[in-house]
Amino acid sequence: MTRTALVTGASSGIGAATARALAGDGFTVVCAARRADRIEALAQEIGGTAVVCDVTDAASVQALAEGLGSLDVLVNNAGGAFDAASVETADPETWARMYDVNVLGVLRVTQALLPALRADGGGLVVNIGSTAGRVAYEGGGGYTAAKHGLKVVTQTLRLEHVAEPLRFTEVAPGMVATEEFGLVRFGGDQDKRDKTYEGVAEPLVADDIAEVVRWVASLPSHVDIDEVVVRPRAQAAQHKVHREG
Q1: Which one of the record's GO molecular function terms can you name (predicted)?
Q2: Which domain holds residue 193?
């Protein structure tokens, strides 16, 4: 039987790697993101489908849902950090943007796609969180607050749908060396982005997180993985937590 997965934020980084990993495991993958050229190229590469979608726009998410029949796996990957400001100096609008994409975006997409996940008798939702959803660090108040929120949303979904054959997993990476995440956070400053990885000889890469998602999606439906926290070996649990992604 054909299995279908949908990955948001599939235009780069963890999202693109996850789409490739799931396609390699036999899924037909819907690649959803804002940048049409990138997801169209990715969909052609993996034999999937590209759908332009902005998770912060309700109409865009609704259009995404209307184009689906049934769905086996939803990967809520779209997210990001947009500043490194202290609480005292932070722009509330920037914090609102981070909450919108990291939490409300997951809310919109999950609400819209639950009927498709139920269509074949149950499905899996994987939310890409962060170890920032487990710690606090200077300059990260807005992002860590959003990722803490995502963690609680995932936990709540699991409780609210425990009577249904639906599974909800959070994959929480630590330091992952993706080019765009740091550049967006630091306003395009390459030096600040590169300094993020100082002291860790071998950070994770997007393919490492994609493999975790692929593994979770490969398990039988009675197996629920609540959460997976994954860090590079060199990043001890308390080692410069402000660097965690």
Answers
A1: oxidoreductase activity, acting on the CH-OH group of donors, NAD or NADP as acceptor
A2: 3-243
Amino acid at 117: L
Two tokens, residue 60:
């865009």
Instruction: Name the residues annotated as catalytic.
Output: 143
| Nearest alpha-carbon partner for 150 in 55, 12, 67, 69 | 55
Structural domains of the chain, count: 1
For residue 8, what are its two tokens? Answer: 């948001």
Q: Are 35 and 86 in contact (CB under 8 A)?
A: no
Nearest-angstrom CA–CA distance, 132 and 147: 6
What is the C-alpha separation between 139 and 40, in angstroms, rounded? Answer: 36
What's the CATH number where 159 sits? 3.40.50.720
pLDDT in tens, the chain (245 residues): 789 999 999 999 999 999 999 999 999 999 999 999 999 999 999 999 999 999 999 999 999 999 888 999 999 999 999 998 999 999 999 999 999 999 999 999 999 999 999 997 889 999 999 999 999 989 999 999 999 999 999 999 999 999 999 999 999 999 887 666 655 565 665 565 556 666 666 888 999 999 999 999 999 999 999 999 999 987 764 444 444 45
From edge to edge, which strands make up the β-sheet containing 49-52?
Answer: 49-52, 27-33, 3-8, 73-76, 123-128, 166-173, 227-230
Q: Which two tokens stand for residue 186?
A: 């630091």
Number of Cβ within 10 Å of residue 139's Cβ equals: 17
- Return the ∠ at Cα 226 (arms to 220 and 154), rounded to 5°: 115
